[in-house]
Amino acid sequence: GNSVTQMEGPVTLSEEAFLTINCTYTATGYPSLFWYVQYPGEGLQLLLKATKADDKGSNKGFEATYRKETTSFHLEKGSVQVSDSAVYFCALSPPRGNRDDKIIFGKGTRLHILP
Amino acid sequence: NAGVTQTPKFQVLKTGQSMTLQCAQDMNHEYMSWYRQDPGMGLRLIHYSVGAGITDQGEVPNGYNVSRSTTEDFPLRLLSAAPSQTSVYFCASSYNQGFSYGYTFGSGTRLTVV
Fold first, then answer.
1. Chain B: closest CA distance from residue A105 (Å)
2. N or C, where is chain A less crowded by C-beta within 10 Å?
3. Which of B42, B90, B98 faces A93 most closely, judged by CB atoms?
4. B79 near B62, Cβ under 8 Å?
5. Are A13 and A81 in contact (CB under 8 A)?
6. Helix (H) / strand (E) containing B112
7. Which chain B residues have a beta carbon less than 8 Å from that of A46?
8. Three-class SS of A18-38
9. What is the pLDDT of residues A39-75, one digit of tens each?
10. Lowest-pLDDT range of A23-32, A49-58, A62-71, B83-92
């Protein structure tokens, strides 16, 4: 079946460091891929998405590229800020018509940024 | 502002009590769903609906009921609360089951069952 695996946290970095959060997936066909962010005490917010191979999603300085050959969608940011401290979820949406027609979430990666 | 509204934000129940968590969206989304979030478990799907009058079970449906009489509302009912249902509950909606748009989430209901 379809699944998402992301690196376990917590991830702790200093301000202005480079961030990578790994995400790999298993799916048939061409799913859509998403990154969501959850700030303390809030719901999940869509951060970025990519709907086909080689697409790059970007928002608020974060980027992720849909790599079909490695089934990956790693989240990157060149210089993190304290305000980026949150939990990040990788997710996939199976192609329309797939039996498992719901968004599937990874378990989340908690990010701490130290000033 | 358009979005998903959940009420209440916090609730404490005694074991055996029943209650309804409310969820409403004003974006004319067909698809609505309920998740629970527990430490170390990520998000788990409880129930979902692809349109008014249509509901289906998710990964962890036991102890919960849902109905969808209108496009806008998707309440979640706890029939007889148990301590294992202590969690944060999120409602999410999407235009087309989220295939390419993703979900819009509410801000959550934090439930404690004592």
1. 7
2. C
3. B98
4. no
5. no
6. strand B109-113
7. 102-104
8. CEEECEEEECCCCCEEEEEEE
9. 998 999 999 999 999 999 999 999 999 999 999 999 9
10. A23-32
